[in-house]
């Protein structure tokens, strides 16, 4: 938290996961979404609030009609007309981070550069605009009202009535708590992730801020988060999370967008250790909120789909549910839900979501709900319960907050129930709508201390390297180290125990004398195979490549070059650091504030499919196993499930009981004709937790399903996959 320099546009994009997201989904850019930007006067003039279109990649005279300027109920399409409004440099800066389409380092400056239209509002009378109809789905407010003014109830009411995602600055003064409009419950309040600006709770006691972003000024951080919210709205509108109208409506609910943003945020290295760490009464950090926004994580959670709750039960207020609950475990590692709870007088109502956590695997979950039109909130609680014993494993029930968040790591494989509870009152019935988002705890790819790296002067232990030392790359060129990231973990009690346990690759496990010595890396660290990068966790065979469970302390070190590249660790080609938005997880993240970050992958990352299957099969054979050839396949009993068909993909899992680690090749048929094939070797935590070998038995096939019958069968013998067929109408 020692940043003194603002990252540039390209660095921001890398830090929040946007660069990676753009590479994966280049059309996710805000298209089709109308947004608003509210601006106060920065100079004391009465109406200097207007964005200059010429500075954000649009015609200087606004001839494309991209912006409409509003001063109360007076509007104009003419920039800087002196009647409705005049030019604001401050507003234009925030616009550049939010939706700017001018180019910087080969990419647009804005997070959402292709929005359909922007309404530019004057803050002094924006509450007038709240009373009339307006089309904006996301509204950025990079300002604070005077401390004596509080319009929180106006914004709470407008969010409820218009389903608008309001985003506001926390403020730049550590001595002043977040104020209006950012202190409103239904507004996402944004702080800085690289310095200490405003410190929560809010001026009226609300538990703020909600989230942070990598700029020194919170006017800019709010604009960045507004752009991220816009991408989620676009993805929801486009049906990324389900084909039905209800799925789309639920996905763009302002509660859902907020829950996804907060749950996807990455925790800075000092998140749990500084003076502002979460407490029982403050569920999020008083300076970071939920952490630094990461749009890649949030989009992935949205894409996980809307998950149906397993059960809804009423209990006497304060009572617990009897366990075990007979529920079907959730089949995905991440997802979300928009639910409604109704509690009668003297009773609580609980929605339950069942899931299996494999030993050492973690979960992060967040709920958000809305204040009513008078700025009052009901009391909701989020709990994680052992479904066998009934023990409460994690709880979040902070007062004065419409956000609860839990993080938990399973020491052993555990059946758990995620419970969302609405606390009833004695005076009558209550009803409230909440959004839930959940995902595995995140991790980072690194080398373990002691690893020898090939440099221009020979092999050197990684901990002895310094910035400027030259390492030998796959091309044969030696290139200077730009940054060295370091982080230490206590594995005997750390919240990310399993996710951080290193993978041991024994000497000779990959090829003769490769690696040259036993090599330890983090599970996500990728190796170069056949022109691709494959993470270590997907190569384990429990004989020559396996997880280490004998360590209590581990130090991870990573090397960053000017561009993502492949170097040699103990002789094995392996990746350098790629900034995908997780740099804040390193203890020394602030040291790289002035460096140019590696943002584009040097090769495709492979986590499923034939290339991975070939590599796994080759490594297993080298380890002394006799695996059947997945291309011809085994023909033992077929187990699995054809689980669902969504708007643009179908998914499930399959395993041959006679050869559990041999991937099953499946054929997809519509009306009896084969239209595609897919290999079931995608990893899923729930399959691992259920005892299904390595858990690498899932499949997800991107496609637009036809409106007809879909069958899935094993290619080797035509055996139908359980759950098949599914009828699409």
Write up this protein:
- By secondary structure, the chain is of the alpha+beta class.
- The chain is 15% helix and 31% strand.
- It contains twelve helices and 43 strands.
- It has an eight-stranded mixed beta sheet with strand order 4-3-8-1-9-10-11-12. A five-stranded antiparallel beta sheet has the order 13-15-20-17-18. Strands 14-21-16-19 form a four-stranded antiparallel beta sheet.
- Strand 17 and strand 18 form a beta hairpin.
- It starts with 8 loop residues before the first helix and ends with a strand.
Secondary structure layout plus pairing:
Elements: H1 9-15, H2 18-24, E1 34-39, E2 48-50, E3 67-71, E4 74-76, E5 86-87, H3 89-98, E6 103-104, E7 107-108, E8 117-122, H4 126-129, E9 138-141, H5 152-162, E10 165-169, E11 187-192, E12 211-213, H6 218-237, H7 245-251, H8 254-264, H9 295-303, E13 311-316, E14 335-343, E15 347-357, E16 362-369, E17 380-386, E18 392-396, E19 403-409, E20 414-422, E21 430-439, E22 447-448, E23 452-455, E24 458-461, E25 470-472, E26 478-480, E27 483-490, H10 497-500, E28 503-505, E29 519-521, E30 526-529, E31 532-535, E32 545-547, E33 553-560, E34 566-569, E35 572-575, H11 610-622, E36 638-645, E37 649-656, E38 664-670, E39 673-680, E40 682-683, H12 685-689, E41 696-702, E42 709-714, E43 726-727
Parallel strand pairs: 1-8, 1-9, 2-5, 3-8, 9-10, 10-11, 11-12
Antiparallel strand pairs: 3-4, 6-7, 13-15, 14-21, 15-20, 16-19, 16-21, 17-18, 17-20, 22-33, 23-24, 25-26, 27-33, 28-29, 28-32, 30-31, 34-35, 36-37, 37-41, 38-39, 38-42, 40-41, 42-43
């Amino acid at each position: 938290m020692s940043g003194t320099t603002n990252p540039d546009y390209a660095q921001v994009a890398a830090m929040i996961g946007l660069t990676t997201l753009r590479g994966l989904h280049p059309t996710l850019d805000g298209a089709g979404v109308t947004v608003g930007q509210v601006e106060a006067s920065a100079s004391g003039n009465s109406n200097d609030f207007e964005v200059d279109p010429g500075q954000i990649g649009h015609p200087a005279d606004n001839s494309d009609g991209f912006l409409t300027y509003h001063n109360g109920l007076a509007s104009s399409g003419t920039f800087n007309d002196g009647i409705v409004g005049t030019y604001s440099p401050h507003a234009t800066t925030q616009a550049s981070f939010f939706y700017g389409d001018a180019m910087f380092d080969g990419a647009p400056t804005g997070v959402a550069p292709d929005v359909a239209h922007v309404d530019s509002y004057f803050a002094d009378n924006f509450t007038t605009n709240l009373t009339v109809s307006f089309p904006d789905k996301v509204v950025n407010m990079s300002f604070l009202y005077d401390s004596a003014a509080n319009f929180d109830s106006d914004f709470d009411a407008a969010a409820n009535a218009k389903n608008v995602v309001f985003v506001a600055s926390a403020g730049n003064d550590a001595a002043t708590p977040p104020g209006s409009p950012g202190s409103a419950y239904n507004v996402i309040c944004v702080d800085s992730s690289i310095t200490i600006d405003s410190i929560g709770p809010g001026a009226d006691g609300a538990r703020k801020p909600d989230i942070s972003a990598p700029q020194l000024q919170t006017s800019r951080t709010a604009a960045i988060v507004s752009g991220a919210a816009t991408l989620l709205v676009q993805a929801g509108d486009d049906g990324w999370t389900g084909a039905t109208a209800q799925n789309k409506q639920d996905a763009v609910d302002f509660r859902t967008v907020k829950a996804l943003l907060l749950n996807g945020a990455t925790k800075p290295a000092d998140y749990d250790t500084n003076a502002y760490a979460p407490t029982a009464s403050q569920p999020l950090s008083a300076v970071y909120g939920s952490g630094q926004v990461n749009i890649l994580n949030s989009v992935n959670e949205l894409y996980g789909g809307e998950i149906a709750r397993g059960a809804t039960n009423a209990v006497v207020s304060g009572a617990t549910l009897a366990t075990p609950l007979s529920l079907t475990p959730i089949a995905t590692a991440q997802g979300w839900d928009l639910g409604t709870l109704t509690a009668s007088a003297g009773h609580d109502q609980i929605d339950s979501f069942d899931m299996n956590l494999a030993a050492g695997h973690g979960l992060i979950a967040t709920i958000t709900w809305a204040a009513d039109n008078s700025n009052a909130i009901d009391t909701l609680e989020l709990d994680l319960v052992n479904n066998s014993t009934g023990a409460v494993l994690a709880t979040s029930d902070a007062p004065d907050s419409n956000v609860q968040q839990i993080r938990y790591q399973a020491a052993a494989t555990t059946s758990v129930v995620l419970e969302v509870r609405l606390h009833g009152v004695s005076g009558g019935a209550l009803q409230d709508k909440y959004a839930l988002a959940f995902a595995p705890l995140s991790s980072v790819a690194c080398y373990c201390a002691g690893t020898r790296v090939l440099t221009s002067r020979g092999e050197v232990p990684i901990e002895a390297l310094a910035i400027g030392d030259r390492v030998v790359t796959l091309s044969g060129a030696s290139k200077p180290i730009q940054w060295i990231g370091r982080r230490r973990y206590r594995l005997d009690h750390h919240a990310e125990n399993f996710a951080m346990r290193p993978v041991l690759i024994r000497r000779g496990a990959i090829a003769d004398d490769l690696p040259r010595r036993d090599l330890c890396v983090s599970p996500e660290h990728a190796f170069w195979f056949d022109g691709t990068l494959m993470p270590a966790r997907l190569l384990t065979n429990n004989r020559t490549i396996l997880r280490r469970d004998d360590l209590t302390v581990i130090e991870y070190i990573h090397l960053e070059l000017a561009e993502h590249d492949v170097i040699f660790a103990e002789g094995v080609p392996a990746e350098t650091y790629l900034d995908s938005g997780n740099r804040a997880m390193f203890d020394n993240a602030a040291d790289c504030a002035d460096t140019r970050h590696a943002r584009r992958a040097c090769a495709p990352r492979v986590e499923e499919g034939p290339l991975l299957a070939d590599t796994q099969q080759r490594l297993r054979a080298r380890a002394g196993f006799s695996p059947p050839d997945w291309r011809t396949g085994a023909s033992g009993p077929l187990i699995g499930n054809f689980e669902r068909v969504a708007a643009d993909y179908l998914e499930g899992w399959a395993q041959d009981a006679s050869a559990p680690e041999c991937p099953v090749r499946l054929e997809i048929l519509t009306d009896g004709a084969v239209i595609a094939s897919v290999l079931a070797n995608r990893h899923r935590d729930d399959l691992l937790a259920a005892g299904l070998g390595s858990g690498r038995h899932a499949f997800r096939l991107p496609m637009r399903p036809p409106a007809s019958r879909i069958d899935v069968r094993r290619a080797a013998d035509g055996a139908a996959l359980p759950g098949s067929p599914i009828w699409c109408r």
